[in-house]
Amino acid sequence: QLIENAGRAVAEEITRRFGARRTVVLCGPGNNGADGKVAARYLKQWGWPVTIADGIEGAELIIDALYGAGLNRDFPAALADKINTAGVPIVSVDVPSGLDGLTGHPRGSCVKADLTITFFRKKPAHLLLPGRMLCGEVVVADIGIPATVLPELKIHLFENSKPFLPAINCASHKYKRGHAVVVSGAKFNTGASRLAAQAALKIGAGLVTIAGLQDELLVHAAHTTAIMLAQTNTALALGMFLNDARRNAVCIGPAASVGSETCARVRAILASGAATVLDADALTSFARNPAELFAAIAERPRRPVILTPHEGEFARLFKTLATAPEAKHERALKAAKSAGAIIILKGADTVIASPDGRAAINCNAPPSLATAGSGDVLAGLATGLLAQGMPAFEAACAAVWLHGEAANRHGPNGLTAETLLSALI
After folding, report:
1. Are 262 and 238 spatial neighbours (Cβ–Cβ below 8 Å)?
2. Angle 31-45/2-17 helices, nearest 10 degrees?
3. CB of 205 closer than 8 Å to CB of 227
4. Residue pLDDT, tens place only, 224-265
């Protein structure tokens, strides 16, 4: 019955988009091929000229039902090239043939579909790169599998989606909305920390303070109004500043500089018990001894900590995972468990992973986000949400989604970190 429903769903989605035309269905030996045969039967009943064949000669539309998400062999390059260069629409069943459904990477070569019809729920390959670019439009068809099976399957991998943000009621005031602290960069590198601070304020933190040396703060003073400034010349002074428990979320890393002083400041922040976002230089400063950072995190296991590495920073902290063959979300989950922290593994297919086994794949980020300062805004968003009491995994997921949404709202032309801030909700 599931195969019957799947094949009909494929046929229905095709007829929604295309008029009747010569259609060739390429059917493999398993359930994927069976879905294709059912789709061919329905299309023929509805008056389409349909052929189930090995070749694609004369085709005006190709249905790729050769192999689904569980492919365990390399897909031949000659066949993939023949299909991809046919010059007609290609519709794949489940995933484009040759695409590994778990990792999102081709096994050998891969069909490049215009439309992919999958069933029940998306597979990781529909969201992870390069799979997302090979699938074309993705449609999830209901074929009668009840949602009640999900708890039995114990699946903890999600597509990141629009978040529920912390509520504000009439009894709220700025101290109830949290006090975020951002550690400044050096006097000629203050912009990154200022972007993070502005993002934390924009996303709803009640108060935001930039902490740093006097010469750094003099630069900030010329650029900030609602953001406060606090002089903390040493790691000890920063720790003392954080003794006030109302200063409940801290971001360090944007242009903080790499070295022992940044390491000392990170340790002071972690010792304070404040929720913490470690970004950029705060991560690279521990590249020689990641275990030192992870031990400092473990000393206060209930404190929310978020790490925001891109792939290069990830490789510095998690050397054995950087080149591991696992899917991106699997690498991020192992890193989260190793560090005892939430991991935001950044990229066009950002993955958010928690030590408790949950992970989310984000897919709303446009290419225009690849611009200087974009990551600093993301770090500030996460910090501002932590300050408002949002749980760390949910705060990280929300920050990533809002980051992408702001870029989409702005549009592709002229996006900078400053204009990204203006597009935030």
Report:
1. no
2. 50
3. no
4. 999 999 999 999 999 999 999 999 999 999 999 999 999 999
